[in-house]
Amino acid sequence: MKILLVASEVAPIIKIGGLGDVIGSLPKALSQNFAVDVDVIVPFFPYANVAGYALYKNIELLVPYNGVTYTVEVYATKLPDSDVDVLLLKNNTFFANPIPHFYADTLTEVEVFAFFSRAVVEYLKLKLNTYDIVHCNDWHTGLITHLLEEEFDTDRPRTLFTIHNILYQGIGSITTPYKVGLTPGMHPALEWNLEDGCVNLMQQGITSSDFINTVSPSYAKEILLPEFAGELSDLLKAREGRLSGILNGIDYTFFPRKYDTLSFSAEKLLVKKALQVKLGLPTTSIAKTIANVSSPTTPTLDMPNPLFSYIGRLDSNQKGLDLLYDALPYLLAHGGQFVLLGKGDPIWEAKFQALAKAYPASVAVTIRFDENLSHEIYAASDFVLIPSKYEPCGLVQMIAMWYGALPVVHKTGGLRDTVTHLVNGLTYENQTPESFSQCLANCFTLYAEPKKMATLITNALNADWSWSSSAEKYMQLYKKMEELNG
Ligand code: ADP
Questions:
Q1: Which of 24, 72, 75, 139 could bond to 61 as cystine, CB 3.0-4.6 Å?
Q2: pLDDT band for position 18 (50/70/90)?
Q3: pLDDT band of 103, cuts 50, 70, 90
């Protein structure tokens, strides 16, 4: 079986968020564990980190778009430590400029990815009968199924459309389908979509692919509700028989770690001190910091301050930043230290930076994307805060566990499926300040009971979120799709 995985990013070459991690690790797990050949195809954006990769120009494509034929150079390399080919599509008109807000579904991005979809289909035409399955990811790839229908009719590869985040939908101009060469009348789902004067690429992927899946079992149920998927929930309900949820995994080789279940207690303290020094935070004991502050519990006097962190995109719609920001005074008043690494919404970047200025002794904020620093923060943290309003799967809680940092999460989506309260982390049910604050109080109580804390950390370190079981589920789905073909 040969599969083409189509996406906007692939770690470690291009990584904006969790999608990049998934596209960089799922194909490795598939090709290592099953008799399957997987190629990945992505745009060759200028921020692709290809230093040190053996990169060669493979072929050139002629891609028609809006009445003009563009040349696209196909470069090929391998994912590190694997047989997986990564194909990077280079074009100076569409893929040459860094896109500032990659996740925002602006018109410009819709154009970029409509062109990308056309280019992928031109590639598939050149590689006729090579791929059995085209596995598309998120709105960026939503037009591919219709294009395949036009090019190959019923003799086309089977398509799987994976929803990584249903609220980014790629809403574009009504002219976009025409520019890629689609005739809406031949595709009722597309024609119907255009009636309101614009195209929704996520909707196209959902309505026209053979199968749909999303990245956790809980999110697969949640997106059937309008509060999670808006108007798309009805369309998903209509295709419920073709919809499933497969939890993402992580590739542990991306995350270096110096300790294990036997050595974590001493080692994590050292890493924590090193990070505190690096970020200019005191390494003093909690007793000194919380003197005169009424604590929800009585910590041991010589315990260092509990270190809480947030690592992730500063996305105000999804990540519960308001809840986090409002709870920080409570956290700091009780001797917690807070470290944030993230970038995104400029308003939130400024708010957190101002907070760090106001509390230099207990808050450190770094506004950038920094893989190495993220590993240091995970390793140093006692608790990693993930107060997301919704979370399709979430990788941060899995990475946190690997580093023995307890995830503190809202019970939603993949967070619900991976974190069990007081077993491998802490959870809260309602997205309210009261519920989150109570959960933070539970963190302090737990922190003051080192034995119990150590049990939870051990459970977290023992958790297995590798791809092995999820890759098997993808294989089963691909096989089911092939049978449909026959
Ligand atoms: P999302 O896909 O919504 O961004 P996930 O939890 O699925 O969230 O994945 C986020 C991934 O991106 C994790 O690997 C996380 O460590 C990483 N990440 C996010 N922001 C940063 C940052 N500023 N620096 C380094 N890594 C980051």
A1: 72
A2: confident
A3: very low
What mean pLDDT comes out for the span 321-334? 96
The closest-lying atom of ligand 1 relative to the alpha carbon of residue 164 is: 2
Q: Measured from the CA of 393, which atom of ligand 1 is nearest?
A: 7
Q: Return the pLDDT at 16.
A: 83
The residue whose CB lies within 8 Å of the most ligand 1 atoms, and thus the one to mutate among 313, 388, 408, 470, is 313
pTM of the model: 0.92
Quote the CA–CA distance of 86 and 90 in Å, as a whole number.
Answer: 13
Asked if residue 16 has its Cβ within 6 Å of ligand 1, the reply is no
Which of 252, 251, 253 minimizes the C-alpha distance to 25? 251
Report the distance separating Cα 404 and Cα 454, nearest Å. Answer: 9
Inform me whether the pLDDT recorded for 301 exceeds 50. Answer: no
- Cα separations in angstroms, 398 against 97, 303, 378: 33, 26, 11
Query: What distance in Å separates the CA atoms of residue 142 and residue 292, rounded to the nearest whole number?
Result: 58
**Where does the pLDDT of residue 108 fall: very low under 50, low under 70, confident under 90, or very high at 90 and above?**
confident
* Substitution site in 252, 353, 374 for ligand 1 pocket (most atoms within 8 Å of beta carbon): 374
Rounded CA separation 109/337 (Å): 38
d(CA 386, CA 310): 7
Residue type, 295: S
Q: Helical H runs in 298-345?
A: 321-333
Question: Which stretch of DSSP H or E encloses residue 207?
Answer: helix 201-208
Residue 295's pLDDT is 47
**Whether the Cβ atoms of residue 218 and residue 391 lie closer than 8 Å to each other:** no
**CB of 254 shorter than 6 A to ligand 1:** no
